[in-house]
Amino acid sequence: MPRPKVGIVGAGNVGAAAAFILTKRNLCDVILSDIVEGLPQGKGLDMNECRQVDQHDATVTGTNRIEDMKDCAVVVITAGVPRKPGMTREQLLEINTNIIRDVCGKLKSTGASPVLIVVTNPLDVMTYAALKITGFPKNRVLGMAGVLDSNRFAHFVAERLQVSPRDVQAMVLGSHGDTMVAIPRFTTVGGIPITELLPKEECDKLAIRARDGGAEIVALLKTGSAYYAPGSSIAAMVESILYDQDRVLPCSVHLDGQYGLSDVVVGVPCRLGDGGLKQILEVKLAPDELAALKRSADVVKENVRLLKL
Q1: Domain at 146-307: CATH architecture
Q2: CB 31 within 8 A of CB 61
Q3: How far apart are CA 262 and CA 88, in angstroms?
Q4: pLDDT in tens, 201-249
Q5: Order of strands across the sheet that contains 60-63
Q6: Does the domain spanning 5-143 belong to CATH 3.40.50.720?
Q7: Which of 56, 155, 176, 254 is the catalytic position?
Q8: Is this model's pTM higher than 0.90 or not?
């Protein structure tokens, strides 16, 4: 049986890390694209030269043509620019929306209808843009943020309690950024809520550190940002979709009344499998948790309004 194909748009650190992790696990062949001539080809060749020592057969094919992804079951969009000094929020939104529009237009021109996983920031807004631009069914357009944010939260919990991260299940809702909503009472260690193991103020500190996890890495690196954890988070979503694993993972998806929210993309617990989103899981939130989720959604809606899609 041939391996499935996955497209990754953007051969920067995040896209390359995702490609390397996916192929190292022998999950799929990867088509890696970038507008820079030679960049995806060079990184693809470098990864392919690991196959003998890593003992796998999956390949990375570098290309400068998104149209080469027409046979891909999943396409991950990591291409985009970060906000630079002097750049307004509106300018960043416009630049990255144009990138999403270009990528989605080229994909649609092939007649393909893959599951899209959007990683470009601001993530929830760009996922909404991709949904509207492609016209794809809502189950086939997802944003990768909640897996990353939850894994960061889980890491800090495991570190604080000196337990294996394998026994930590963390829940983070809302948009990716300053308004993300970590839920300590649904974050468990071996099934035990961390609210039973730590005082509230410590739970809150861990949640804040998870929220600021990306900025903490940026401050340490001085140049650049995180890519190993985002790459692993992408791989987890892709694997569940390709192999119909029905994993419950937090993803940014379009809501139609769930949690009292409509026509907005934010992170919620999702069941992922063949075809993308299979189910949105609704949990009963406390009034303050629900209010925080709605505030997060309002920020996404305001940014979407600026796009004039």
Answers
A1: Alpha-Beta Complex (3.90)
A2: yes
A3: 27
A4: 999 999 999 999 999 999 999 888 999 999 999 999 999 999 999 999 9
A5: 60-63, 29-33, 5-9, 74-77, 115-118, 141-143, 247-256, 262-273, 276-280
A6: yes
A7: 176
A8: yes
Which DSSP symbol is given to 50? T
User: Strand locations in the chain, DSSP E?
Assistant: 5-9, 29-33, 60-63, 74-77, 115-118, 141-143, 168-169, 172-173, 181-182, 188-189, 192-193, 247-256, 262-273, 276-280
Q: Locate tokens 């953007």: which residue? A: 10
Q: Where are the domains of the chain?
A: 5-143, 146-307
Is 155 known to be catalytic? Answer: no
* 287-307 vs 89-109: helix crossing angle, rounded to 10: 80
59-77 burial: b if 16+ Cβ within 10 Å, else e: bbbbbeebebbbebbbbbb
The answer to whether 145 touches 270, Cβ cutoff 8 Å, is no
